[in-house]
Amino acid sequence: MTKPAESQNPQPAARSSAAQGGPPDRGRPANQGRRVAARNRTALITAAREVFAEQGLNAPLSTVARRAGVGQGSLYRHFTDRVALASAVLDENVRQIERAAVEPGASLESVLGVITWHLSRSTAFVDLLRVRGDQARTLSERVRTVLSGCLPAGHRLSPDDVMLAVAMVSGAVAGPTPAERERLALRAWRLLGVEVGPLRPFETAVDE
Predict the structure, then answer these.
(1) What would the DSSP string read from start to end of 36-70?
(2) Whole-model pTM over 0.70
């Protein structure tokens, strides 16, 4: 009677990978999952900023999810409700302002350009900030810290002056589209005699 062949060891590939100094295969799916989650969160924040700027804070969250290219289940895994999503957008806006301030060659004018870009897209959040006073104060203080660091020595304006100017421009920003709001914001800055750099976001890529 022929003796049955011995069963093959089911783990040679894993041993080969380890022998070559590579990371265990089992670690890759978790890392990939974290990267996908980070990309989805970033996409949702970007989409929410756009949709809320176009349709207001009561825009359907399904529209935000579609714009981000994810399902609604993914949206609710990251953000429990509309307020949490809107708060995340505001926090990311300030993070971009902070990153713009430490960019090589950053200036008061360039940072004001980033601030103004966000002002023209954040009019829908005014009511939220009135309700969430603690968050509003925290975000405002972070922006003030940035502006304090950008002011050249001997500048005619103090940090409080610049913050007041930002508030005045924010109050003047109205209109049906971001482009119209940008136009009004730049006009307000000119009336105040304050130079502003190019209006732009300051987004950074998420690692692939």
Answers:
(1) HHHHHHHHHHHHHHHHHHHH-TTS-HHHHHHHHTS
(2) yes
